[in-house]
Amino acid sequence: MAASGDDGLESQVSGAEAFLQQNQAEISRLMSFPGVDAAYLDFGVYREESSAAQFFRFPPDLLRLVGALNVHLELSVYDAREAAENASE
How does strand 72-79 pair with strand 40-47? Predict the structure, then answer.
């Protein structure tokens, strides 16, 4: 969701909140179409190798928006080493 090239979670959340607020009516309309079973809002982050544990928090305003729109919230955690290896190929 971050158009600036910054892929940090905070930036993604900010962009997602703005997008959902600006497009609430259209998202609600799309969710009401026959055959639409679910919609997902996915945030991608890289796992920090040096951390034994990582914690990700989502602000209440975002949670209220996705809940009101019946959109699932998803967090995808990627291995930073694998991404770096793939980028160098």
Answer: parallel
pTM for the model stands at 0.77
H helix or E strand, kind and range, residue 46: strand 40-47
Give 23-78 pLDDT, tens digit per residue: 999 999 999 999 999 999 999 999 888 888 889 999 999 999 999 999 999 999 99
Q: Of 75, 46, 40, whose CA–CA distance to 58 is shortest? A: 75
What are the angstrom distances between the C-alpha of 35 and each of 26, 32, 68?
16, 9, 19
State how far the Cα of 31 lies from the Cα of 21, in Å rounded to an integer.
15
Domain boundaries, the chain: 9-88
Which two three-digit tokens encode residue 73? 């919230």
CB 37 within 8 A of CB 44: no
